[in-house]
Every structure is written in C-alpha cells, then in structure tokens.
C-alpha cells in the first residue's frame, strides 16, 4: 500500500469515528481530497485507491491535471475551492462539477453565462468569511443575502446553489475555530428559512488540522490536502 492510499484509509476511518462520536449519520461527511501543488501522479494514486472527489484552488493547475483524468474516468469529480477570477470562469466550469468559492454576484453572473454557453449545469457554494484573518468569502450578511436572492429570482438557471463553504482562522484556539464553523451552520439555517426553494444541504468546512471540530459542528464535506498528500512545496 502506498502512503497516499494509506493516508486516505486513515482519514476515512477518522471521519467515520467522528461521525459516530458526534452523532452524525454515517456517511454524511464527504472527503474532498485537495490535490493542489501535488502532481497528477498523486491524483492517480488516490483514484487507484478508489477515491474520486478532488479539490483544486487554481484553475490553470486544475485544467492541466484534470482535463485528461476527467475524460478517462467519468467517476472523478473536481471542485474549485480557491478564489476565482472572472476571466478564469470559462475554464473552471469546463473542468469542475462544483465551484465552492463563490464570493460575489459578478462571479455568479459569469458562471451562469459560461455554463449556459456549454449547456452545463453546475453546483455552487457561497463562500463565507467567518474568520477575521481570512481574505476570501462574503464579508457581510447583506451582500451574501443579495447574492442568494439573485439566484432565487431566477437569474441563474444553470447554477444550482447547494450550500456554503468557509475556512476557519489559522489559530490553535479551538474555541475560535469552532465559532467560525458554528457561525456558518447558523447562517445556512437562516438562509434556508429565507429561501425555501433551495436545498442548502452542504457545509464545506474543515481542513487537515481542524476537520474533527468541523464534523462536530455539522460539516458535510471536509477539504483535506496535507493529511492525504503530504506537505506542499510551493
Ligand atoms: C489548501 C486548501 C485546503 C486543504 O488544506 P490542508 O491544510 O492541506 O488540508 C482546504 N481548503 C482550501 C480552500 C484550501 O485552499
């Protein structure tokens, strides 16, 4: 067994234990394997081990690694999780099944436009800034509300909002991390009540260092890179 296969197995076991420990239904927490900065060879090792869900944060890298993989293996799914420039949307939607980092209405408009062109429906998550030190995501409720409403008003038929994503602050303070995750859950519940036409079932939160807290706080998808693929060399 190679180390990637071994790490995947270990993380999946830890996710399952956390589900059990925190009274989460078994199998409700997905693992997004974040392969950024790791070569295509690492992705292939994970696929051979039976893992099909991946995340990348830069579009160029995602396209370089995944356009071939996607055409060979229809089970493989890629999510874009990094800040997305408008001029990269066309490429992003060609390779991804979900954009998790929607942080402004202009991006929604461009995703709709590019998806309509290729007749592809795409899932999206609204990224929310729940940590003071974070630069990405919606910073205030009004802007987020406006973006959700923009979709609810029927402007984005090729875009399917399925939930929310956040990054906890970079800290050892568990209480701060927990606060960040629980605030995303509360926000999701609030917006679900405001917009019953959507099914906000996904909470993408938790990374290598904090995913067990995230699962306790209701995460449905943990995004894990280092603990699967090792340290990144930038
Ligand atoms: C890199 C990255 C991850 C994975 O981080 P690790 O600490 O390596 O697990 C998760 N989410 C986002 C948005 C990332 O950019």
Keywords:
234 residues; alpha/beta; eight-stranded parallel sheet; globular
Structural category: alpha/beta
Bound molecules: pyridoxal-5'-phosphate
Number of strands: 8
- The fraction of residues assigned to DSSP E strands is 15-25%
pLDDT < 50 runs, ≥5 residues? none
Q: Could you state the order of secondary-structure elements as H and E?
A: HEHEHEHEHEHEHEHEH
Main β-sheet, in a few words? 8 strands, parallel
- How far the N terminus sits from the C terminus, by CA atoms, comes to 27 Å
What is the overall pLDDT average? 96
Strand order of the largest sheet: 7-6-5-4-3-2-1-8
> Outline, from the CA principal axes?
globular
The share of residues in helices is 40-55%
Roughly how many Å is the radius of gyration?
Answer: 17 Å
What is the count of DSSP helices, taking H or I runs of 4+ residues?
Answer: 9
Describe the structure.
By secondary structure, this protein is of the alpha/beta class. Helices cover 45% and strands 16% of the residues. The protein has nine helices and eight strands. It has helices at 3-21, 40-48, 59-72, 89-95, 105-118, 141-152, 174-194, 211-216, 226-229, and strands at 30-34, 53-56, 77-80, 98-102, 122-127, 159-165, 202-204, 221-224. It has an eight-stranded parallel sheet. Strand 6 (159-165), helix 7 (174-194) and strand 7 form a beta-alpha-beta unit. Helix 3 (59-72) runs parallel beside helix 4 (89-95) and helix 4 (89-95) packs across helix 5. The radius of gyration is 17 Å and the shape is globular. The relative contact order is 0.15. Residues 34, 36, 57, 81-82, 167, 207-208, 223-227 line the site of pyridoxal-5'-phosphate (PLP).
């Amino acid at each position: 067994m190679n180390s990637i296969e071994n790490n995947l197995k270990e993380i999946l076991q830890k996710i399952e234990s956390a589900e059990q420990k925190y009274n989460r239904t078994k199998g409700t927490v997905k693992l997004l394997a974040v392969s950024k900065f790791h070569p295509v060879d690492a992705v292939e090792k994970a696929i051979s081990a039976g893992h099909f869900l991946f995340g990348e944060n830069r579009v160029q890298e995602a396209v370089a690694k995944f356009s071939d993989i996607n055409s060979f293996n229809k089970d493989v799914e890629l999510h874009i999780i990094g800040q997305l420039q408008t001029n990269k949307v066309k490429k992003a939607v060609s390779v991804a099944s979900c954009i998790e980092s929607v942080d402004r209405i202009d991006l929604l408009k461009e995703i709709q436009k590019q998806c309509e062109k290729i007749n592809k429906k795409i899932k999206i998550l609204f990224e929310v800034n729940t940590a003071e030190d974070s630069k990405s995501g919606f910073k205030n409720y009004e802007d987020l509300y406006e973006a959700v409403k923009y979709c609810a008003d029927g402007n984005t038929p090729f875009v399917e909002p399925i939930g929310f994503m956040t990054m906890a602050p970079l800290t050892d303070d568990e209480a701060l991390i927990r606060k960040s995750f629980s605030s995303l859950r509360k926000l999701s519940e609030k917006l679900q009540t405001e917009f019953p036409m959507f099914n906000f079932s996904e909470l993408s939160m938790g990374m290598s260092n904090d995913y067990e807290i995230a699962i306790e706080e209701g995460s449905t998808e943990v995004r894990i890179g280092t603990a699967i693929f090792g340290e990144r060399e930038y």
